[in-house]
Amino acid sequence: MQWIQFVLILMGQCSFFTCHLYEYHFIPEEKCWEKARSYCREHFTDLATVSDMRDVERLTNSSQTTDAWIGLRSINERVIKEWHWSLPGENHKFICYNETGEQQYFVIDKPELNWLQAQSYCREHHTDLVSGITQINSTEFNKRVDEFTDQHGSPDLWIGLFRETWSWSDGKNVSFRNWDPDSFVDEASKTCAMTTPNGNWSSDKCTYKKPFYCYDDKVILIKENKTWDEALTYCREKHRDLVSITDSHQQRWVQKRAKMADTEFVWLGMRYTCTLDLWFWVSDRLVCNPNWAPDQMDDCGMATVMERDGKWYKKADNEKFNFICAK
């Protein structure tokens, strides 16, 4: 009976548990962009990096009432400036997707919108402009494009790909942008990004003084080779625990750390119990959305690792790898 109750508790946590692997801090003191970055690096991790619309909502739902610096900056050298699809005057139909259990795609017949406006439309009414090789190569995506082509010929369609020289202060390769669709950010003198009270981004001169957002990273990659039990003990003694991943947002954040590991795999905080015949996180969360690589078999004495590509594998818990702790 106790086992049944334990499983039911775990299953109930799949829907209601939310945990952030990093925290944002709004600093009301006004500083230029460079001094804001120095402050964040001294007291936290860095100026805020924004990975998706969930992060945008976290910033927007704060006490911010004015423009505030974030960690995005352009080197703005014209000799290496790369093309944008969102150039003024260029307009096309576009294709959005919904991030559900099964991807859904929608061709939007609004040729009056430029790329940024199309991106904003998709984020308001769906999830985003279609993005990534997996989506573009999917059967459902190509089926939808073929259907639209049969009815309307072969129109150009915006997708969620762009190129630019803007980069994040902490060096992360995060392609997400949330520019105000009605603003033009490609001005030579305005090379630092800020978030506005409505959540959209704009840019301004880096020497102007504004409040700013820092973030504090809550995960750390440990470049020591340990068994799963040794890694668990290390994390609990020096930090909080081996890291748990309960949604796709956390998956992306942890995967960025895994790419920097010295070993092919890194331990995660998930283990298999033969008694209950299930996988669970050391934080007592049930595994709700597993990201297993193909052909992974359950067996006693197994724990979970992540490869650099983000896929999860099942390894004997006495093997030794780098690991990721939650702070």
From TrEMBL:
Entry keyword Signal: yes
Gene3D superfamilies: Mannose-Binding Protein A, subunit A
Domain C-type lectin: 24-86, 100-215, 213-326
Keywords: Receptor, Signal
Pfam families reported for this sequence: Lectin_C (PF00059)
Signal peptide: 1-16
Record-given protein name: Macrophage mannose receptor 1
Organism in which the protein naturally occurs: Dissostichus eleginoides (Patagonian toothfish)
